[in-house]
Amino acid sequence: MGVLTLNAEETSTLPPEKLFKLFVLHFDTLLPKVLPQVVKNVELISGDGGPGSIKKFNFVEGADWKYFKHRVDALDKENKIYNYTAIEGEGDANIPTIDHVSYESKVVGTPDGGSKSTVVIKFYPKPGAEIKEEQVKGGLEKEKGIFKALEAYALANPNAV
């Protein structure tokens, strides 16, 4: 009945500055543009986009989610660190035993000029509940798909980011 912690890592041929812009600084506008069949829009509910801000991701009808909200916990452009917590959501993909999920992400350069994105994901259960890795694997696979779709967009549109 503790926190389930998973680590994810993706590599890219994009340089770290561009990958960070793609997945953090321009993510809210690019996500609905690249995946309009899934994401309707992203709203800034409160704040200026920095720590403490709340963002709401709205999905198209028929998607696994109706919406979810996340709070920005840390944004360090110089060190390419972005931490946030998924605090609310509604949809078929919602797992009733999860209270919230935190993400600690960092982008670093690789020797070949590309980059590596690492994310520590912590799933916090509701009191008395347990979260099993099998429950969250489908969501992690979808996140990998989003990574690849955005990366492909950036490679095909080098001036877009």
Automatic annotation (TrEMBL):
Domain Bet v I/Major latex protein: 1-91
Keyword Lipid metabolism among UniProt keywords: no
CC per GO annotation: cytoplasm; nucleus
GO MF annotations, alphabetized: abscisic acid binding; protein phosphatase inhibitor activity; signaling receptor activity
Pfam families assigned to the protein according to its UniProt record, in alphabetical order: Bet_v_1
Family: Belongs to the BetVI family.
Protein name stated in the entry: Bet v I/Major latex protein domain-containing protein
